[in-house]
Amino acid sequence: MSAQPGRAGGGEGGGGATLPTRTREHAHPTVGVYLRVAAALVILTVLEVGVFYVPAFHPVLVPVLLVLSAVKFALVVMFYMHLSADSRVFSFLFGAPFVLAVVVLVALLFLFLGALTLRGAAGAG
Description:
mainly alpha; 2 domains
């Protein structure tokens, strides 16, 4: 009898131990990828600190910091929490409530911060 795939020892009379089968193998990121992501996170953090100290950004400080933070959050979730290599179901279960929370947060910002609304911007002139 010939060796069977997934069986150790193949043939007859052997222990017949089954080798672990992997249904879906995904490649883990290399150290280089992690270092590039870490470098991007450092650069984004420097940008966040820089934006805070530049007076020209003060009118749009909160939205700019929120966007930079969201980009950093996405990088951490995709690479360090391995969500980019997981099942799409997990990505949806994580992403859908997050998108809903962002929409609600932005709506509340427009509602309660008069300077960001059209009526508030028109009245400021």
